[in-house]
Every structure is written in structure tokens, then in C-alpha cells.
Amino acid sequence: MDPRELKSSIANPTQSVESFTNRLSGEQLDCLSRCAKGNTLRFEAQEIVDAIVAAGYAKKNIIGVVTVTAKGQQYLAANSKRARRRAIDLNSE
User: Fold this and answer.
1) How far is CA 33 from CA 13, 23, 70, 90, in A?
2) Which of 19, 36, 61, 81 has the highest count of CB atoms within 10 angstroms of its CB?
3) 28: exposed, middle or buried (C-beta count within 10 Å: 0-12, 13-18, 19+)?
4) CA 1 to chain CA mean position, Å
């Protein structure tokens, strides 16, 4: 990282945490949200699960069980309104 970029990020402490993380698609956010509620991701598209694991929002355990990480919980908290809107949209279809 360029020292000037680091200085500007320190100088702007109000910058959101989300700007330093990967932004999930609606499907990925929905998948992460369901995982946080304890739902299995066994039947999800593998590329969606792989994306949330690669971003560090979830981890895949030895037998393939996916659990949300602390980073994933923070992402969900920061995007809770977006996740609720997505859930409402999916339920109304």
C-alpha cells in the first residue's frame, strides 16, 4: 500500500468498514445471512459458497459444514438493512 493511501485512510476514521472488504452480491449476502441463522448451505451453488469463504466471511470445516466468521458477522451487521430487503424481495416472489 502506498504510504499516502495509508495516511489518508487513517486521516478519515469515519470511512466505513465495508469499503475495506469485498462487497457481496445479493445472492451471496442471502446465503451468508441464512448460514448465520444456522441453515445448511449444502444445496447452495458451490460458487456462491466458495465466494463467501474466499472473502473470509465464512469458513468451511473438515466435513464441509460452513460457519460464519467474525468478519462475516460484522459484514452482516453493517448490511442488515440490505439483507432484510433482499429477504422480503425473495419472499414476495
Assistant:
1) 27, 14, 13, 13
2) 36
3) buried
4) 24
Calpha distance 70→75 (Å, rounded): 9
Using CB atoms within 10 Å of the CB of residue 78, give its burial: 0 to 12 exposed, 13 to 18 middle, 19+ buried. middle
Angle ∠(49,52,55) on CA atoms, nearest 5 = 145
Q: At what angle do helices 70-78 and 26-36 cross, to 10 degrees?
A: 120
Gap between the Cα atoms of 73 and 15, Å rounded: 19
| pTM to 2 decimal places | 0.64
- Confidence check: pLDDT of 2 > 80: no
pLDDT of 26-62, one tens digit each? Answer: 889 888 998 899 888 877 888 999 999 999 999 988 8
